[in-house]
Amino acid sequence: MKKKILIFLSLIVFWFAFGPIKSAQAQKVYQIGTDVTYPPFEFANKNNKYVGIDIDIMKAIAKEEGFKVQIKPVGFNAAVQSMEAGQLDGVIAGMMMTPERKAKFDFSQPYFDTGIIMAVGKNSKIKNFEQLRGKKVALKTGTAAALYANSIKKKYGFKTVTFDDSNNMYQDVVTKNSVACFEDKPVMQYAINQGTPLKIPVKPANKSTYGFAVRKGHNQELLAKFDAGLKKIKANGTYDKIKNKYLGTKHHKVKPATEDRSFWGLIKQNQDALLGGLGETVWLTVAAIFFATIFGIIVGLLGVVPNKFCNGLSTTIIYIFRGLPLLVLALFIYTGIPSLSGQKIPAFLAGIITLTLNEGAYIAAFVKGGIDAVDSGQMEAARSLGLPFGKAMRRVILPQGIKIMIPSFINQFIITLKDTSILSVIGILELTQTGKIIIARNLEGFKVWAIIALIYLIIITLLTWLSNWVKRRIQI
């Protein structure tokens, strides 16, 4: 009987050890990066679900070839860097197949023909590149259109300014800060059809094609599946249906969606997305401040113990992580470390680590400062009474120092809340990233950012009231 039970338990252990592995291999899901603001190729619809030519093509191919994909809308730059770091399996984001990119990535067969155009304000008199001399032109970071514009700017004598998303680039031209922008033809046509007050005065230049990209020498099986699936959806008509759905045909243009564009209308239509982004922001803030507080207290205490090595270590940690810009730290953790280690770091975890190190360094500084602010005679008196250093610190110094630190803790909570917006660069879907996604669909940049700003102000006002209440309670 005991032998049978032992065999049964061994089978259960074997199944748990090896069964899930086989299942996971059979159900492999490819992580595919894409842009967040590149309609009609990728954007969030009125239900805040990601759609577009690229998304639909990727899903149609996955269905044909029998594999699964998880779309990661992280932004073009973040997607490319994440793929280089091994965080993503591939990128489909209206990526032109330029010689420079072919040297770094492996591409599929072309899936879309395109060209680069120049767009100007609706009432602009600019009709050619020669009229750009001495003027400013807006570009989107990392795009083939930006590369093309930079390659001709010396010849035509114009200056450039870059933006991370298309809407801000368009708005720079609309507000006349720049006289023109460079963009892919179908993307610009879609924006104009949606009501963006720009026009295209020149024919497309530098004609090229879009391709699905994977890391050089990696995921060749996925690349082969993409090519095979692309051939199938072109043959069965699915490809043409997807194109016509977003771009229409020569005889039928896609009409812009009619929706309430007032402030209240935008809030009602996007309330789920806004609440989701707000929830992610609050969760990031709470988790980060929790770990940053632990980290900061430990590092701060190291700075006040009677040990030169500990003091030096504390000073060095504070110096490094307060000195690094948060954006650089986030990109280093999310893309730099995986490039060296080969281990993926989820975006949310990378965000928590980034905030913990950065905010923790500031907390360490005011923990150290709060303890130093307590009269040195207090420690001397405690030690003269026979209390060891640790007990004197715990019983005498810290209770006084904490009163000095508490308002700073709450202020740091407010700063951490605001700093979460920077993490949109690594694709975390917090409040700022949510705003970008909404704008990609409706191009109502001013109104959406005003709503986002109001949400931040309400939360920060509540936290400020809390800070003032705490100050009064502890009578500082």
Automatic annotation (TrEMBL):
Pfam family, one: SBP_bac_3
Localization per record: Cell membrane
UniProt key word DNA-binding: no
A GO-annotated cellular component: ATP-binding cassette (ABC) transporter complex
Gene3D superfamilies to which the protein is assigned, alphabetical: MetI-like, Periplasmic binding protein-like II
Protein's UniProt keywords contain Transmembrane helix: yes
InterPro entries according to UniProt: AA_ABC_transptr_permease_3TM, ArtM/GltK/GlnP/TcyL/YhdX-like, Iontro_rcpt_C, MetI-like, MetI-like_sf, Solute-binding_3/MltF_N
Signal peptide: 1-26
Transmembrane intervals: 282-305, 317-337, 448-470
The entry's keywords: Cell membrane, Membrane, Signal, Transmembrane, Transmembrane helix, Transport
Taxonomy, superkingdom: Bacteria
Listed PANTHER family: ABC TRANSPORTER MEMBRANE SPANNING PERMEASE-GLUTAMINE TRANSPORT (PTHR30614:SF46), MEMBRANE COMPONENT OF AMINO ACID ABC TRANSPORTER (PTHR30614)
Protein name, as recorded: Glutamine ABC transporter, substrate-binding protein
Organism (species): Bombilactobacillus mellis
Upper taxonomic lineage: Bacteria, Bacillati, Bacillota, Bacilli, Lactobacillales
